[in-house]
Amino acid sequence: MTERISSHAEPDANRPSVLSPVALATLFGDLVDVLIPGNENWPSGSAVGVHGLLLARLVDEWGEAEPRLVAEALLAEGGPLAGHDPARRREIVERFEAARPNLFARLNAAVVLAYYESPLVAEAIRKLGRPYQLHSHLTGYPSRPFDPARDTPTHKRGAFVATDAVKRVDLSGLDLETTRTETWGTRR
Amino acid sequence: MTAQRTCDVLIIGAGATGSLAALVLSQAGLDVVCLEQGSWVEEKDHPHLRSDWTWQRKTNWNPDVTKRRHPDDYPVKSNSSQILMWNGVGGSTNVYGAVWPRYRPSDFRKGTEHGLQPDWPLAYEDLAPFYEQADRLVGVSGLNGDRAMPGREPSPTGPLPPSKVSKRLADAFDRLGWHWWPVEAGVISSDYDGRPACNGCGTCNGCPRGSMSKYSMSIWPKALEAGTELRINARVLKIEKGSDGRATGALYIDRNTGHSHFQKARIVVVAANGVGTPRLLLASDNLANQSDQVGRNLLHHTLVAGEMFVDQPVDGHTGYVASLISREFAETDTSRGFVNGFNFNCVTSSPSAGETAAGWFTNSKAPWGADHHAWFERHFGHGIGIFAIGDDLPNPNNRVTLDPFLTDSDGVPAPVTHYEPGENDKRMMTYMLDRIEDVAKAAGAFEYHLHDYRDAEGVYRTPAWHMIGTARMGADPETSVVNKWHQSWDVPNLFIMDGSVLATGGVVNPTPTISALALRAAGYIRDNFAQLSTTTRAAELNRGDL
Ligand SMILES: Cc1cc2nc3c(=O)[nH]c(=O)nc-3n(C[C@H](O)[C@H](O)[C@H](O)COP(=O)(O)OP(=O)(O)OC[C@H]3O[C@@H](n4cnc5c(N)ncnc54)[C@H](O)[C@@H]3O)c2cc1C
Ligand code: SF4
After folding, report:
1. Is residue B82 within a helix (H) or strand (E), and if so which, with residue range?
2. Which residue in B has a C-alpha nearest to residue A54's C-alpha?
3. Per the omega criterion (within 30 degrees of 0), is the bond before A80 cis?
4. What is the CA radius of gyration of chain A?
5. pLDDT tens digit string along B70-86?
6. pLDDT tens digits, one per residue of B225-272
7. How far apart are CA B210 and CA B226, in angstroms?
8. Which tens digits make up the pLDDT trace of B484-538?
9. Is the pLDDT of residue B310 over 50?
10. A12 located within any domain
């Protein structure tokens, strides 16, 4: 969440957007609904007010000009979304994602987090059968206390080398000095 | 600038180790002053009680000091690791996870074992009683009887409730024939020392209830009651040294008034953590650095992670963040192709709903669009996270230095950190990922993802919540900064109390060891105060034994 496309000191922060505030509101509402549409079990992003939270966070984290810059990035890829069918809306957002991957990733993460903060979405999660509290720190979640008879491991595995038993190991086969591993980790 | 009284002991930093030192020394009746650049972190400052806590964890409660904008912080530049810490009373325990395993005896004998790391100047047995003392003070939960560790006293509170995640993983480890054990945690499973038991809320990232031992709630009240004078918003700019080679005290700025003061002291204790301590020493005219080891040998542990999803719900978003530990691979076995070992010692639960869907520590996340909800229904409550943490080899070029231009708001140069895993570390991390895959398969995961913390350019950007080794202890003044009592080899009344003294990283989270060491060193200062408060004998002459 650190990369900024704008900054609080951006020179043209006061430049008005090409879209009216009403059109901007529609655009952000439409955008969050493409990202998180609703269905019979889940409210859509705009239905729980995600775009309002999103706009405030864009400003707080990345500066006053950020909503305008996001809107302009979307317009550059064929926006606004209003007036288009769902397939075309998706296509515009896909182009936005391809053109501005970092900005899109940041925006999408902010949308998703805002969505799951909604008490209405928490209600939908509980309807799935999962325990879920937005303020779980206040309430906690029920749990079964540790029962020594039931929960103590019964395996007999595990050993350690005692201080006096630490012995020199043979490093000759390791070639740590001469080998340079370049392909490692997940790119192994 | 105003003159102040000469205190017996000046402690710089009110984090984990500063608080323990303050407690021991003020309980002994010494006049103790502690200077902390940050302030108290109150319950309301934590995000835990707000619906937007997941957003806050990415922004102003982000443990990465380079990602939040907090006035108590100082700037840190890093070309590699993420720098995780908190600056304020209680230090990084305001945001930590309190996974609480101990080092093992062989961790102190790596010089003997293979010579690519030094032996510590003390043994596990020297530290064992202080582990017990730390556990009682901090408030710990755990289960006795682990054959993979030396015997110990029972934890002050019993193990935390076993979660569905731990059951699932225990079965997987059994299937693999690998060791596992309920994790020790700096979290209380029953009410203890005036603090309430963990309620399993699943928001561990610090804990404003105090069920997880945040040192501002567990240790500081006792230290204050014993008489420590804690000055907050007091940032130390420089430690001064007199012509006799002794530290005279510290110049600090009161960040509330903007006025600077000099606090005179008979003994100076630095407890500013593995980045803050080398920074301060380097900024104090290269203090205590005749060995040229200050700032070098920065250790973070080798760290890789995995996320797996299983069919049966495990509700990993509930309960304390860690559930069990596996010490199967803790000791060196060179047939694996590397020295040292690792633990699955942060077997974690999964994050909140939003964090599951937005992506947690691997590339697993919900797609946007029509498939979003189906993905969520399949994955949320079904996820299990796992970390493997290993013992990285020291490299003098992995280090903390000072930026030539950037300073904090008070003019102290900003630290710059550089960390790159070495050959042994890379081999170990590859092996660890293979073993995480084994766990995922044994757990019957329908999907799993691995993470090696490398970015698109291949730079290892580990979340460096363990910052150690940068003022390491040793038996040789040429290769270490302090002796076995944390006493500077160069400045006889200067002690380094924090995690920077650790000579090796072990295969575990370090705070139990850091805390035990701090109690031991503080006891030494207390017991030898009269002599230490006047001696000009360099520590190397007596090799740490007065
Ligand atoms: C996100 C996270 C998770 C973690 N999880 C675990 C875990 O599960 N288990 C575990 O064992 N460990 C964990 N840790 C590590 C643990 O928090 C540290 O090991 C421990 O806090 C180190 O104690 P310390 O005294 O060395 O430093 P700190 O606790 O960091 O305290 C240093 C203090 O010094 C102050 N200071 C620095 N410079 C100055 C100055 N110039 N003037 C005045 N004050 C100064 C700072 O403000 C700070 O308060 C975690 C850490 C983080 C960040
Ligand atoms: S799960 Fe327990 S330790 Fe973690 S934040 Fe909640 S109450 Fe605190």
Report:
1. strand B82-83
2. B55
3. yes
4. 26
5. 999 999 999 999 999 99
6. 999 999 999 999 999 999 999 999 999 999 999 999 999 999 999 999
7. 21
8. 999 999 999 999 999 999 999 999 999 999 999 999 999 999 999 999 999 887 6
9. yes
10. no
Identify the CA nearest to B130 among candidates B152, B161, B145.
B152
Mean pLDDT of chain B: 95
The gap between the terminal CA atoms of chain B, to the nearest Å, is 36
Pick the ligand that lies closest to the CA of residue B82. 1
Separation of alpha carbons B537 and B546, rounded Å: 9
Give yes or no for residue A53 having a pLDDT over 50. Answer: yes
Q: Is residue A37 part of a domain?
A: yes
B145 vs A contacts (CB less than 8 Å)? 152
Whose CA is closest to atom 7 on ligand 2?
Answer: B198
Ligand 2 site, residue B227, Cβ cutoff 6 A: no
Average pLDDT over residues B201-205: 93
ipTM of the complex: 0.94
Domains annotated on chain B, with CATH: 1-98+101-139+213-299+395-419+466-546 (3.50.50.60), 152-204+302-390+420-461 (3.30.410)
- Give the minimum alpha-carbon distance from B53 to chain A in angstroms, rounded to a whole number: 9
Cβ–Cβ gap A155/B179 under 8 Å: yes
* Interchain CB distance below 8 Å, A125 and B380: yes
Per DSSP bridges, beta strands B413-418 and B399-407 are antiparallel
Chain A residues lying within 8 Å of B50, measured CB to CB:
135
Render the burial of B221-244: b for 16+ CB within 10 Å, e for the rest: ebbbebebebebbbbbbbbbbeee
Ligand 2 atom with the shortest distance to the CA of B185 = 3
Q: Number of folded domains in chain A?
A: 1
Tell me which residue has its CA closest to atom 5 in ligand 2. B204
Q: Which amino acid is at B539?
A: A
User: pTM for this one?
Assistant: 0.96
Q: Coil, helix or strand for A46?
A: helix
Chain A residues with CB-CB distance to B177 below 8 A: 157
- Do B118 and B503 contact (CB within 8 A), yes or no? yes
- List chain B residues with CB under 8 Å of A180: 423
B514: Cβ below 6 Å to ligand 1?
yes
Q: How far is the CA of B127 from the centre of ligand 1 (A)?
A: 20
**Calpha distance B489→B496 (Å, rounded):** 11
**Residue A141, token pair as written in the block:** 């979640």
Residue to mutate among B107, B368, B437, with most A CBs inside 10 A, is B368
**Is residue B16 within 8 Å of B515, Cβ to Cβ?**
yes
| Residue B240 φ then ψ, to 5° | -100, 150
Query: Å from B281 to nearest chain A CA?
Result: 30
Contact between chains at B108 and A144 (C-beta distance less than 8 A): no
**Is beta strand B2-12 parallel, antiparallel or unpaired with respect to B260-270?**
parallel
- Mean pLDDT, rounded, for A40-57: 98
Say if ligand 1 is within 6 A of residue B273 CB. yes
Q: A63-120, pLDDT tens digit by residue?
A: 999 999 999 999 999 999 999 999 999 999 999 999 999 999 999 999 999 999 999 9
Q: Is A161 within the bounds of a domain?
A: no
Q: Which two tokens stand for residue B73?
A: 């912080």
- Are B461 and B453 in contact by the 8 Å Cβ rule? The answer is yes
Q: Collect all residues with Cβ–Cβ distance below 8 Å to B98 and sequence separation of at least 6.
A: B185, B186, B187, B204, B207, B212, B213, B511
The half-sphere exposure of B333 on its side-chain side, counting CA atoms within 13 A, is: 9
Q: Evaluate whether A145 touches B394 at the Cβ level (below 8 Å).
A: no
Q: What is the per-residue pLDDT for B389?
A: 97
Give me B2's structure tokens. Answer: 């105003």
Residue A160 lies in a domain: no
Ligand 2 center–CA B211 separation, angstroms: 6
Query: Which residue range is the domain that position A58 belongs to?
Result: 21-137
List of chain B residues whose C-beta atoms are within 8 Å of the C-beta of residue A112: 354, 357-358, 365-366
Q: Report DSSP state, residue B77.
A: E
